[in-house]
Amino acid sequence: MNSSKDLSIIIPCYNASRTIKYCMESILNNLKTLDLDYEIIVVDDCSSDNTVELVKSLFHDVKIIRNKKNMGAAYTRNKGIFHAKGKILMFIDHDVYLKDDCIRKLIAPLLQDYGLDITYPTVLCHNGEKLSPSTEFEKYFVRKSTIFAIRFKSLNRLDEFLMRIISCIMKISTFSLDVSYVV
Question: Do 107 and 149 touch, CB atoms closer than 8 A?
Fold first, then answer.
């Protein structure tokens, strides 16, 4: 991988024609205030609707990659990683809409020298449920999250990182999280 970009946004899609436009618009609204060299990669997991055609017609600067057959979200994200050129990778599911300033808040700690490798926000679901990395319920938050950012160079340490987090959370009943890094 050639890290020629500051940020690669990877959006795995499957039959996303109803949601991808709003997701992309929220991403672009966030990016217009940032001075970053970025790329957006949509990886289509063999959709049977018009997801790819819609993205092509509305968002001309987006790189589109298509799976030849439906392979699932993990494979589709990995395919995006293979094509990414960013120092920071951000994964956003096609049905996620970002609030203003979300991208800046997620990547700022990764751009600074805080020693962080991954950031993720509190997610507000359409049904009102909050998925927050600081709640006991979310022991496996990163694996479930529909949006997070990670330094590319940290990918080879991700499984080790996740296991350490899960182990720590399971050992203690309450813990403190520096909320300045949580969006």
Answer: yes
> What is the token pair recorded at 161?
């990182």
pLDDT tens per residue, range 42-53: 999 999 999 999
Predicted TM-score of the model (pTM): 0.76
The one-letter amino acid code at 79 reads K
CATH 3.90.550.10 fits 5-181, yes or no: yes
Rg over CA atoms, the chain: 16
> Domain extents for the chain?
5-181
Q: What does the pLDDT look like over 124-138, one tens digit per residue?
A: 666 776 666 555 444
